[in-house]
Amino acid sequence: MGIVADVHGNAAAFDRALGELAAEADALLVAGDAFSDHRFSNDIVRAMREAEALYVLGNHELSFLGPGGTRARESPRVSRAELAYVEAAPTELRCTIGGMRLLMVHGSPFPPYARYLDPESPEFERAGELDADLVVLGHTHLPMARRVGPTLIVNPGSVGMSDQPARGDQVGYAIVDTDSGEVIFRSFDNPRRAAV
Predict the structure, then answer these.
(1) What are the pLDDT digits (tens) for 34-55?
(2) Which of 92, 118, 139, 173 has its CA 20 to 30 A from that of 112?
(3) Is the pLDDT of residue 24 over 70?
(4) 3-state secondary structure of 81
(5) What is the pLDDT of residue 164?
(6) Distance of CA 175 to the CA centre of its chain
(7) Which among 111, 116, 104, 117 is positioned nearest to 32, based on CA atoms?
(8) Phi, psi (5° rounding) for residue 101?
(9) Residue 187 has pLDDT above 50, yes or no
């Protein structure tokens, strides 16, 4: 399965990731923040919908859908079909995929849910409480794969923007082999930066 998170409106990077994943991933997971703040992206949401992505809302979608996003939602530039898709998305998704019990959220899988959990966070030692084989999250823009007991925790990093000076302008995604549990991280130069 292919996993992306934190697209933040970067349609060029998202399109590239989808193109690369098309040949090797049988499912697409999107762990929130498809767009930034109140800058809705019809193109990204349409691509997620057409790819039948499993998708959860991030803090940016929640801001857009909240009281402060009323004017942005009413804009004639916002496709009603794409808005309905976002409005119907959950903040937490549980299902079985490839034989793995999946829990996907954007931020922390533990309350308070909006927290940023870095890869070394001691909170992950509580993974057994989550009743999941695979936990997918985003929010931090930090790629990570960590196994705690039988639970694999994956953050693909950001396909929209890098917040890590050491990575330069690299963005990326992850692939999880549901048979072996192997996690592969892929990265590429941010096409948004190249266009500037």
Answers:
(1) 999 899 999 999 999 999 999 9
(2) 173
(3) yes
(4) helix
(5) 72
(6) 12
(7) 104
(8) -75, 115
(9) yes
Considering only CA atoms, which of 192, 145, 146, 142 is closest in space to residue 167?
142
DSSP 42: H
CATH of the domain at 90: 3.60.21.10
Q: Domain range spanning residue 84? A: 2-195
What confidence category does residue 20 fall into, taking pLDDT thresholds of 50, 70 and 90?
very high
Tokens 């266009």 belong to which residue?
195
58 contact partners, CB below 8 Å, separation of at least 6: 5, 6, 31, 32, 33, 34, 106, 107, 138, 139
User: Into how many domains does the chain fold?
Assistant: 1
Separation CA 71–CA 18 (nearest Å): 30
pLDDT reading at 168 higher than 80: no
Residue 115 CB contacts under 8 Å (≥ 6 apart), including other chains: 107, 108
